[in-house]
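Lab meeting, item 3. Inverse folding demo.
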């Protein structure tokens, strides 16, 4: 029993073999995949996947690198309408990205704040993208009272000090391919300290491919390698770790058990 809490299977990188990729995930024991729609192009394709496959769910939101392109009032209303769909389980991925210089910080902050406010109004968990912006992400989450809805710190890359602040705000900490890398000291240390009932796993497919396929296209079936690494770090069997992270995913996202 595995749940991939974050994937982009609508990516053009899967255009030639999407059905086979999804079938391989099922064969690998993946029960549920949450696909992420994060801008004007990927929200419709994410919704189409969620409607096509009963075990694929959707999160919809506006990514910080695309914040400059958001028509704030119009697109927030679109996201709000989509959140009424039974397959939409979260708003995301939203947050801040200071690595890619595509959207000014002040615009990123506005788009992030407005989506947190929308999530609170709709009582939906949020999926957080955070790249090189740990302090500001935590500050804005606190200022906007995001603990009311909580959610997922997607592919967490921060320190244990940052993780503790996120845990205090009702967030789950999600780990992906990097935790399988031999030189990934910090993610392994953080995973070791996160309480069992707040750990999630993901692929971020087609990105962040775990060992032993690092450097190649990622896919949801590879969430098993993340589970294996997590089980080793936590001193559990893979089955135990898969079950606990699946239960956490269902609790966080309101999925049936």
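The presenter then showed the designed sequence:
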């Amino acid at each position: 029993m595995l749940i991939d809490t974050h994937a982009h299977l609508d990516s053009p990188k899967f255009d030639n073999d999407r059905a086979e990729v999804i079938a391989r995930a099922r064969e690998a024991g993946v029960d549920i995949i949450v696909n992420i729609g994060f801008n004007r192009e990927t929200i419709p394709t994410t919704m189409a996947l969620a409607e096509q496959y009963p075990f694929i769910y959707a999160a919809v939101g506006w990514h910080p690198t695309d914040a400059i392109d958001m028509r704030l009032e119009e697109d927030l209303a679109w996201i709000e309408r989509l959140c009424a769909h039974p397959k939409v389980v979260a708003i995301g991925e939203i947050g801040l990205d200071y690595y890619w210089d595509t959207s000014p910080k002040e615009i990123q902050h506005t788009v992030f704040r407005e989506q947190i406010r929308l999530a609170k109004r709709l009582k939906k968990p949020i999926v957080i993208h955070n790249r090189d912006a740990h302090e500001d992400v935590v500050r804005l989450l606190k200022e906007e009272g995001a603990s009311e809805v909580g959610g997922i710190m997607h592919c967490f890359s921060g320190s244990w000090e940052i993780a503790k602040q996120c845990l205090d705000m009702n967030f789950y900490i999600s780990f992906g391919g990097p935790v399988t890398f031999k030189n990934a000291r910090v993610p392994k240390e953080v995973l070791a300290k996160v309480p069992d009932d707040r750990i999630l796993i993901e692929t971020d497919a087609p990105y962040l491919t775990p060992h032993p396929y690092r450097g190649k296209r990622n896919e949801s079936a590879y969430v098993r390698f993340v589970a294996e690494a997590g089980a080793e770090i936590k001193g559990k069997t893979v089955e135990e770790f898969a079950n606990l992270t699946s239960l956490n995913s269902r609790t966080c996202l309101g999925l049936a058990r």
